[in-house]
Amino acid sequence: MRPPPRAAAPHRTATGDPFARFGGDAPATIRLFCFPYAGGGTQVFRDWRTRVPPGVGVTGIRLPGREQRFREPPFDSWPQALDALAEALAPETARGPYAFFGHSLGARLAYELTHRLTADGHRPPALLVVSACRAPGVPARTPPMHTMDGPTLHRRLREMNGVPPEVLASRALMTLLEPVLRADLRLAETWQPSPGRITAPILALCGEDDDIDPYESMVAWKHHTTGEFTIRSFPAGHFFLRDEEEAVLATVCGRLATGGAR
Q: What would the pLDDT profile of 131-150 be if each residue is shown by its tens digit?
């Protein structure tokens, strides 16, 4: 599979601050950059700052179309997303060790940025955590969601517990959320993974009851790194990140404490 092509002339629509630096910009032994799932924002990771060990700095990646960037159109192509995020993250790689955590769409973004930043000569992450995301080359188990009609999409989101019930029940809130969600889902479902292995160790996290990206769809991540590979499952569905947050954090922080190695 070919890597996502780079745009000859980047279409710059992302102008706001992409970083939510929880706890400020205090010195950290290692910084954990967290990429949200489709339709998600940095609030998913806000409480992590008080629950990680000293020395771990938590920074949420704020994508356009939500939160303080809600006036910006969401990313509509992989070249656009990678150009904007790589440009923002490149200076961060020189500040010291860092790691990437991404859930679902966020894992795809984190993986592609690891390839991009390394290819451009920047320090690679000490650890890449891919959460609820099938490995490159593994076919999807479920139909694409970004092309579903409104009622079908809402029903699927309800089945997945992907959107709070009160949001799904609000026409006004869904009118705001749905265009961003569909754009994010389009990115996730049109992903063409970069070929080759990364040097960063990979920690894969999956839900035992996930019908989208179960264990058997994620174990092949071991073929995409020259470093250590570990996989851990949790007793929940696709959004185990919320249901098993304490266990997820303990697993991630345990790996960060060893510099990404087991």
A: 999 999 999 988 898 999 98
pTM of structure: 0.91
Q: Which of 77, 104, 131, 233 is catalytic?
A: 104
The yes-or-no answer on residue 233 being catalytic is no
Structure tokens at 102: 């991404």
Kindly report, residue by residue over 64-89, the tens digit of the pLDDT.
999 999 999 999 999 999 999 999 99
SS3 of the chain: the string is: CCCCCCCCCCCCCCCCCCEEECCCCCCCCEEEEEECCCCCCHHHHHHHHHCCCCCEEEEEECCCCCHHHCCCCCCCCHHHHHHHHHHHHHHHHHHCCEEEEEECHHHHHHHHHHHHHHHCCCCCCCEEEEECCCCCCCCCCCCCCCCCCHHHHHHHHHHHCCCCHHHHCCHHHHHHHHHHHHHHHHHHHCCCCCCCCECCCEEEEEECCCCCCCHHHHHHHHHHECCCEEEEEECCCCCHHHHCHHHHHHHHHHHHCCCCCC
